[in-house]
Amino acid sequence: MKKKLLFIMPSLAAGGGERSLINLLSYMDYEQYEVDLHLMNHEGIFLELLPEEVNLLPLSEGYLRFSQPIGRSVAGHLKQGELSLALNRMLFSLNNRAGGNVSVKEQAGWKYVSPSLRKLKEEYDVAIGYLEKSSIYFCVDKVKAKKKIGWIHSDYDQLGMDAQFDQTYFRALNHIVTVSDECAKVLCNRFPEEAHKVTVIYNMVSPSMIRAMARAEDEDLFERQDGETVILSIGRLQPEKGFLLAVDAFRLLMERGYKVKWHIIGEGDEREALQHKIEEYGLSRRFKLLGVRSNPYPYLEQADIYVQPSRFEGKSIAIDEAKILHKPIVITAFSTANDQLRRNEEGLIAEMSPESVADSIAKLIDDPGLRQRFKRQLASLELGTEQEVNKFYTLVQGGEMP
What we know:
This protein has 402 residues and is of the alpha/beta class. It has two domains: 3-57 and 120-204 and 386-397, Rossmann fold (3-Layer(aba) Sandwich); 207-379, Glycogen Phosphorylase B (Rossmann fold), CATH 3.40.50. It is built from 18 helices and 13 strands. The chain has helices at residues 16-27, 61-66, 70-79, 83-97, 102-113, 134-142, 156-159, 163-172, 181-190, 207-214, 243-255, 271-280, 297-302, 317-324, 337-340, 354-366, 368-379, 388-397, and strands at residues 3-9, 33-39, 55-56, 123-129, 144-152, 175-178, 198-200, 229-234, 260-265, 287-291, 305-308, 329-332, 348-350. Helix 3 (70-79) packs antiparallel against helix 4 (83-97), helix 4 packs antiparallel against helix 5 (102-113) and helix 11 (243-255) packs across helix 16 (354-366).
């Protein structure tokens, strides 16, 4: 008899956690597992990549009203006689407008969102909150399951979250999965009473799939001029990704006379601030925000250098994908950097400053031999992590982890 699984995720918009979920669902054995997916927003570029075997659950009418713009939402709740939900919607809006840490605001906002979300009637063998915060809270509060798993995709301490709030939820989980050894250490130190639940399952990437998708586009995507070096970054346009730092680093490269272009694939709340800084520095023709791309791999294939200027990461899928395509790589020295890249063997790790990032990029541009050495080293690695799905099966089945 098939085991019945439920995955919970806010949306399938562009992001590492979302891409990780799509990869996992692509590897699932649907002869052994029946899979439902609960999204809080039925939008996102990865929806089209959802395997047909996955059953996407409908949203409750109450939550659909709650998630509308505040004026329409409050009016809709009042029309339906949902006075408490109307009040919660106003309090939720006030909470989001308050200053402070975004993660803490999402935690605090859960008490206002939660009443609009119905408890699921179905009972599951295993429910998985596949992203920190609301996905885990929904898993604990709204789902009946024999086993519950929470997935943390980032360095918990760097998120700046209220650990006391999460302690209650982590206590209700059977397993806490994270994506790197360093992230696991952070969780064990922060939640020592739950340390026995912490398991590392790396993000799943398939070299054969990535290489095939990278060959899907033949034309020059960057309109490259002779002698130009094309730099690419991929990630949400959010402060933690460090893209404002990237603009400053690019300005330094231009001032030093390097013939470079820098493109970023991704979307997010920091777009306006980034665009303003790009225009302020007069870099609009050479530093471009490309928005989201459902297939970023042709861009990655055609780029000369991949740069991840993050302030913190869990385990970046984009860096793993750049390694698979043998790109010379520069990353910043975020807390899990050494889990991602062997310094001076697979790429360069810069300090978290524009000057250091610019220096590292310049070093790669100036030294073709170094770029080739990194490429050869990356080509020699076994980089596929498809086998990580077996760790997930073991967790679901209740066996001993390797």
